[in-house]
Amino acid sequence: MTAPLRGRNNKSISEAATAKWAEADLVSAHSYVDGQIWLGTIPQPTDEANALIEDIRAFVDRLNETETLNPAWRDARLREAEVYCEKLERTGYQPIGVGPNEDRHGVLLAATRSGKLTSILAQNLMNYAGSVLASDSKGELARLFANRRGHGSEHCDGLGQQVHVIDPYRVSSVSEDLYAGFNPLQDLHPDDPLLIEKAASIADMLIIRGDPKNVHFDDNARIFVKAVILFVVYEYQDLPQYKNLLTVRDLIVNGARAQMEADFAAREAATGETITDRPSAFMYLLDLMKEYQE
């Protein structure tokens, strides 16, 4: 039977679960080897500390077996022995790496400033040889480990992997050759049933929320950007070189000026007449977008 746990003020509290701290001999069955996910370490006393602990335990056994000792003196020595053993177990240890050899999903939960980066993430990013996709809003993972996972630097050897840092705002401050990009519109297609939702997600990422008092303008900006993204996906589905965010930006900044000039030039060539009544490039863009309304 498990003894009841003790809380503050030495009050007894009920046992809530069966999880307990693992002993070193049990954890050694899951010891870390190269290629696994690093979970952490468990302290194990060094051989010298273990030898001292064994001597102290032998001394404790002799104290318990000797009946002629003063009980108060013996209890004091037993408490001292317990304190010494605890210190040896804490201070004289060599870590055992822990890393289960399996491919199941895991999750890391810890409070802010509890050491997630230094104790878990850093170890894996420095040593894990598999592929890593890291969401790094602060840019610190890229800044600290891009060279280690790549070709190395004067401070560390590299793992020889290809490293691509997608950081349009350059918050990571890595070398320019590591920055990369991707085309989020590449895999968007008109027949995708989730096309509208995907376009909305991209627009939401592009529009940075400002003052809460101006949320109306932010929302309308997202709606317009989403509409332009959808237009680009439909209009350039057979012209992949134009189906990208550069085209979206050009249309938002300049309207459909190039398309309008080409269309009006073709009309003038066909009719032989000069067309003077032309809409603005932005109104022409809206007219083109209306053609895809369903």
UniProtKB/TrEMBL annotation:
InterPro entries linked to this entry: P-loop_NTPase, TraG/VirD4
Highest taxon of the lineage: Bacteria
SUPFAM superfamilies, sorted: P-loop containing nucleoside triphosphate hydrolases
Cellular component per GO, a single term: membrane
Protein name, UniProt field: Uncharacterized protein
